[in-house]
């Protein structure tokens, strides 16, 4: 069983940056595809970014491409989401998610594909 804990959220002005972390415990996530999602009350959960367990494959939602960067440090059992040039529409609760897989190059963009989820961290971007 994997436990995921997000941190690094907060309040930031538009144009600012935040770095989210997702620390895993219970087992290694070095063979897990990982992803970040966000949700705003009243709206559906939205895919943000995904990374293969090898770290060589990444994918981003069009809305964050060029501004956000997902990375992982398997030695630290942690996944990161660097968020730059933040906009008010980036506001939401950010969740990390993981799925154990065999293929080192597989990524998932659908929330239903993931087996493990963190509790979320709030990101608020003021205009």
Short description:
The chain has 127 residues and is an all-beta fold. The chain has strands at residues 3-7, 10-13, 18-25, 32-39, 46-51, 58-60, 68-73, 78-83, 92-100, 116-117, 121-126.
SSE-based structural type: mainly beta
Oligomer: single chain
On the 0 to 100 scale, the average pLDDT is: 96
> What profile does the largest beta sheet have?
7 strands, mixed
Task: Tell me the radius of gyration.
Answer: 13 Å
Low-confidence stretches: none
Q: Which strand-content bin applies to the residues?
A: over 45%
SSE ordering: EEEEEEEEEEE
Q: Helix coverage percent of residues?
A: under 10%
Distance between the termini: 40 Å
Number of helices: 0
Structure notes:
- The protein has 127 residues and is mainly β.
- 0% of the residues lie in helices and 50% in strands.
- Strands 2, 4, 5, 6, 9, 10 and 11 form a 7-stranded mixed sheet that branches.
- Strand 5 and strand 6 form a beta hairpin.
Secondary structure elements and pairings:
Blueprint: E1 3-7, E2 10-13, E3 18-25, E4 32-39, E5 46-51, E6 58-60, E7 68-73, E8 78-83, E9 92-100, E10 116-117, E11 121-126
Parallel strand pairs: 2-11
Antiparallel strand pairs: 1-3, 3-8, 4-5, 4-9, 5-6, 7-8, 9-10, 9-11
What key phrases describe this protein's structure?
about 130 residues; mainly beta; 4-stranded antiparallel β-sheet; 7-stranded mixed β-sheet; about 50% strand
